[in-house]
C-alpha cells in the first residue's frame, strides 16, 4: 500500500467517524438534518474533539518517553555510579557523585560488594542523597532482586553434585541459605543433651 492510498484510507475513516459523531449529536438533541447552524456547530465540536484526541495521544507518548529516559538515567546512576557523567544527573546529586567517583577506596568497594551492601557501607553524613537515591531504586526493584538472588542460590545448590536432592531438601537448603540468622550451635547442642552426633 503506497502513501497516497494510506492517506485516502485515513481520510475516509475520519470522514466516516465524523459523520457518525455528527449524526449521534443530532439524534441526541432531536434536531432535523436540515438545521444548518446546528450541524455546523456539531461539525466544529467533532473536529475539535478529534484534534484534542490526537494531541492527547501525542502528549501521552511524549510523557511516557520522557519518564522512560529519566528512569533509565536513575537506574544507571544506581547500578554504575562510577561510569555516569556527573553532568547527566540531577544537580542535587552531582557533588556527592563527584566526591564518590574521586574516592578510589569506594570504587574498589563497589567492585567487591553487592549493590545493597555497597550503598549501606556509604557514610550517611557524606552521601545522604546518594543513599536515599539507592534506597528509592532498591525499593522499586527489591522483590526482583530477592527473586534473582534466590534463583541464583537455587542453581548453586542444585548442581551436578546434588542430583539426589529432593524438593523438600531443596526447600530446606533455600531457607537456610536465604536467611540472615545464624544458629546458636552451642545452645542447640545443649538443648539436645547429646554433644556428639555419633551417639
UniProtKB/TrEMBL annotation:
As given in the record, the signal peptide range reads none
The HAT C-terminal dimerisation domain, residue ranges: 119-174
Domain of life, source organism: Eukaryota
Q: Which GO terms describe its molecular function?
A: protein dimerization activity
Supply the InterPro entries for this chain.
HATC_C_dom
Q: Which PANTHER family match?
A: EPM2A-INTERACTING PROTEIN 1, GENERAL TRANSCRIPTION FACTOR II-I REPEAT DOMAIN-CONTAINING PROTEIN 2-LIKE-RELATED
Q: What is this protein called?
A: HAT C-terminal dimerisation domain-containing protein
Phylogenetic placement of the source organism: Eukaryota, Metazoa, Chordata, Craniata, Vertebrata
Amino acid at each position: 500500500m503506497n502513501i497516497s492510498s494510506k492517506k485516502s484510507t485515513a481520510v475516509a475513516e475520519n470522514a466516516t467517524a465524523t459523520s457518525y459523531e455528527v449524526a449521534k449529536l443530532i439524534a441526541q438533541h432531536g434536531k432535523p438534518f436540515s438545521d444548518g447552524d446546528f450541524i455546523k456547530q456539531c461539525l466544529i465540536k467533532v473536529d475539535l474533539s478529534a484534534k484534542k484526541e490526537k494531541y492527547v495521544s501525542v502528549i501521552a507518548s511524549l510523557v511516557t518517553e520522557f519518564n522512560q529516559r529519566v528512569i533509565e538515567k536513575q537506574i544507571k546512576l544506581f547500578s554504575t555510579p562510577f561510569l555516569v557523567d556527573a553532568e547527566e544527573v540531577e544537580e542535587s546529586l552531582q557533588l556527592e557523585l563527584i566526591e564518590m567517583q574521586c574516592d578510589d577506596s569506594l570504587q574498589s568497594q563497589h567492585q567487591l560488594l553487592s549493590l545493597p551492601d555497597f550503598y549501606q557501607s556509604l557514610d550517611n553524613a557524606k552521601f545522604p542523597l546518594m543513599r536515599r537515591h539507592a534506597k528509592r531504586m532498591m525499593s522499586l526493584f527489591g522483590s526482583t532482586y530477592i527473586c534473582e538472588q534466590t534463583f541464583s542460590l537455587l542453581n548453586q545448590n542444585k548442581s551436578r553434585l546434588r542430583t539426589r536432592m529432593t524438593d523438600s531438601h531443596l526447600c530446606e537448603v533455600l531457607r537456610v541459605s536465604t536467611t540472615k540468622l545464624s544458629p546458636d550451635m552451642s545452645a542447640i547442642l545443649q538443648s539436645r543433651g547429646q554433644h556428639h552426633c555419633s551417639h
